[in-house]
């Protein structure tokens, strides 16, 4: 009796833990987007703060190994900072190369627009932060972007050093269901 119920519970365990099905490749969708990160690294409405490491007269030390930053940038659908906000870019990044050239980026894109509200994309990887174009992996997503994978390119297309303001154009290419 005891042996039988052990066998039964083993079978039950197997049925609940091993469920799989073939996924058709053609169910995958490819989505491209161009997003604009509105980024202020200083001033009264800064969207980036340095949380460890020394600042030099209010200038954040992006090139210093070990510096950690937290960010909450508005993402707009066009270059103009007054264009519609469609998402936020929230996360942290750490200058992770001894020579200061690489930033390890951990950023969530949290959509707020009608089409994708509540869905997110996760960006993670090594960003060669002083190159013109930086490419970082997209390692996952939620909501409309469940099981997403892909890549994002970042290019700083405008800067105004006096007010610590830059606009970063981010092109996203993802495969998702
Ligand atoms: C998305 O962009 C990539 C890279 O530029 C391109 O190869 C692909 O055809 C585009 N896909 C769509 C659906 O526009
Ligand atoms: C900062 O934000 C406040 C509130 O939105 C705004 O009134 C002010 O003009 C902003 N300051 C700058 C320098 O952008
Ligand atoms: C990003 O996409 C825009 C068009 O939406 C294009 O002009 C730009 O060259 C692309 N940037 C990169 C780095 O591919």
UniProtKB/TrEMBL annotation:
Primary residence: secreted
Pfam families per record: Dirigent
Record keywords: Apoplast, Secreted, Signal
GO cellular component, one term: apoplast
Record's function text: Dirigent proteins impart stereoselectivity on the phenoxy radical-coupling reaction, yielding optically active lignans from two molecules of coniferyl alcohol in the biosynthesis of lignans, flavonolignans, and alkaloids and thus plays a central role in plant secondary metabolism.
PANTHER family listed in its UniProt record: NUCLEOPORIN-RELATED
Compartments where found: Secreted, Extracellular space, Apoplast
GO biological process, one term: phenylpropanoid biosynthetic process
Quaternary structure and partners: Homodimer.
The gene coding this protein: LOC102585250
Protein's recorded name: Dirigent protein
Signal peptide: 1-22
Family: Belongs to the plant dirigent protein family.
The keyword Secreted appears for this protein: yes
């Amino acid at each position: 009796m005891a042996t039988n119920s052990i066998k039964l519970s083993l079978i039950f365990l197997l049925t609940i833990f091993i469920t799989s099905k073939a996924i058709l490749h053609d169910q995958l969708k490819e989505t491209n987007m161009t997003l604009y990160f509105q980024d202020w690294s200083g001033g009264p409405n800064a969207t980036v703060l340095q949380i460890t490491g020394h600042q030099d007269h209010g200038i954040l030390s992006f090139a210093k190994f070990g510096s950690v930053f937290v960010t909450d940038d508005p993402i707009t659908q066009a270059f103009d900072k007054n264009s519609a906000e469609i998402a936020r870019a929230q996360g942290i990044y750490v200058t992770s190369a001894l020579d200061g050239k690489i930033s390890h980026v951990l950023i969530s894109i949290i959509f707020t627009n009608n089409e994708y509200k509540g869905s997110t994309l996760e960006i993670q990887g090594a960003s060669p932060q002083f190159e013109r174009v930086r490419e970082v992996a997209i390692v996952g997503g939620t909501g409309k972007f469940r099981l997403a994978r892909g890549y994002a390119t970042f290019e700083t297309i405008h800067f105004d050093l006096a007010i610590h303001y830059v606009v970063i154009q981010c092109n996203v290419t993802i495969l998702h269901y």
